[in-house]
Design goal:
With 241 residues, this protein is an alpha/beta fold. It has twelve helices and nine strands. Helix content is 39%, strand content 18%. Keywords: Methyltransferase, Transferase.
Length: 241
């Protein structure tokens, strides 16, 4: 069962109404399984910042809230907490994570991207401004760990399946033609973070590389690679014994 507090109703309504985003951004089963495993046997789960893609397990008692400095819950109110692709939208990351720990007695599970690895993607060759902006959006893993200094924090790289249905840019590591689709690009905030001229220039560079065969000469092996280790990371914070 999932319940949404008043504070996140607008965001949830917006996500439900955005059919284009839902076409390209759907929960990837491999990520959902990893998150469910990290949550352990928790029955009550707080999901902070759920938006276009929800990874909240359907078999748990889930409460969804928008990112906020203070959370309207008692101490240790939840067995576990989670947040996916949302830390860049938190106004005060340290306070937000401190609040998350206050209301959670078990693991905190965070699906995020390691900004130090984002620009390692081949896409940075054709859309450098897009990927540089994306790298700046995500907080460093050390900063996350520092905000949860009282916990045992583990960073687990999460391989991206070739058939990934959650369409952030790295999901198309072996399917570059997908990024020529405006709908696919618009579903990824990274592309919306640059001006239209920059985005058009990036798309033109990628299209030219595909038409000329340059992309396949440089990166064609990715087309038959079943999974890819990109920037995706599952951060799990467990209270120290």
């Amino acid at each position: 069962m999932t319940r949404t507090t008043d504070g996140s109703a607008g965001a949830a309504d917006s996500a439900r109404s955005d059919q284009g985003h839902r076409q390209h951004r759907r929960p990837e089963p491999a990520f959902a399984r990893a998150i469910a495993k990290a949550l352990g046997d928790a029955r009550s789960v707080l999901d902070v910042g759920a938006g276009v893609v929800s990874y909240a397990p359907a078999d748990r008692d889930v409460t969804v809230v928008a990112p906020a400095g203070s959370l309207p819950f008692d101490d240790d109110a939840f067995d576990a907490a989670m947040t996916t692709f949302s830390l860049h939208r938190w106004g005060d990351l340290e306070r937000g994570l401190a609040e998350l720990r206050r209301v959670t007695r078990g693991p905190i599970v965070i699906l995020t991207c390691d900004p130090a690895r984002i620009e390692d993607s081949w896409l940075a060759e054709y859309a450098p401004e897009v990927m540089a902006t994306e790298a700046r959006r995500h907080p460093a893993l050390d900063r996350i760990a520092g905000a949860l200094a009282g916990d045992t924090v583990t960073n687990t790289p999460l391989p991206i399946p070739f058939t990934c249905v959650d369409g952030f840019s790295e999901a198309y590591y072996g399917r570059p033609e997908r990024l020529l689709d405006p709908g696919a690009r618009n579903a990824d905030p990274a592309w919306n973070s640059v001006d239209e001229l920059t985005a058009r220039r990036s798309v033109s560079a990628l299209r030219a590389a595909l038409d000329s065969g340059e992309w396949d000469r440089r990166h064609g092996a990715l087309r038959i690679q079943p999974a890819h280790d990109g920037s995706l990371v599952l951060v799990t914070a467990v209270p120290a014994a």
